[in-house]
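Fold it.
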Amino acid sequence: MSKVFFASARVEKWRYEDSMPGKLERLLREVPLSAHFGADEWVAVKTHFGSYGAHRIVRPVFLRKVVESLITLNAKPFVTDTVRIKGLDYLEVANTNGINHLSVGAPVVLADGLYGNDNIMVNAGEILGEIAVASVIYDVPAMVVCSHVKGHINAGYAGAIKNIAMGGISSSHRHCGWKCGRGAMHTIGEGKLVWDSEKCTLCLQCEDVCPLDCIDFEDDTFSYADERCWRCGRCTRVCPDGGLTLPGDDKLFMKSLAEASKAVLGTFKPGKVIYINFITEVQPECDCMPAAEVPVIQDLGILVSDDIVAIEQASVDMLMKAKPLPASVAESAQIKEGDDILLKLHDKPYTLQIEEAERLGLGSRKYELVELK
């Protein structure tokens, strides 16, 4: 049975050791990091840089604590993510959200290059076939996965599995484009955007939210650059009237997340990856959306484990017990105490990604929760 270490967001005593950064330091000693990482070893600290307007990411102070803990081992950490908008713009997003060399104490790099197509094809499995793993993540010998627990347009729940499945895979491949990248998960094949002119009110929110400027409404008629589109689905999520849809298969999608996670983790030797889930400022949507919402639940704390399945199951178990916060979208959706908040918000069978990850041998849903005293 895997151990999942937990530190509550509550501060029992007014001292640094009981602050969230202080508790994270203590958690990283409990793991311990020295059992996974060595001197002079390069270690990727994988996170999500957020977007302009979406500032409720894993805060830079926590990333710095991870970096500092690795440096005490004489390891060589760097903070990284894959391209989600144009590369230079994404680095500016990171800087705007406070993630830079000065704030986190380590270099900040793009794992799949400035153009998002620097990757290595890896066999993923029955659903995805081959998929493009970001070259930096493919090559680096060790990784700490720092995940902001939240909702997600496609996944329903986004934690460590989503972070490395979509964040460890490039958006596109140099030759086969989005079909070999994370777009293959979004649509499971030849996904096409479908426009309903009768429902469309020409609000143009879809055009505004597209990260690659793929959408156009010349003469009030919808069109998009099919070959350039990443199939991220942001355009369909912001459509208020159902005028734009991206058909997909939820069950296959959840299973594909687990497949992609296995492909990414298969590039590491056993014991070289640990996971940190931050159940803080829990958003109804992904951090790639162009705004941050009021959190749907109160901050719960930080989880650390070397078992991706166990930490995801523990995170979901805590979310299930959480109360919806007033003045949030959870209240607007009339979600009550005892409801599965993320299921109510997204209607996605999100636990399938965890069950499939266990089936693929990535870990166990049985865990021992060790709470920091």
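Residues 296 and 325 are 5 Å apart (CA to CA).
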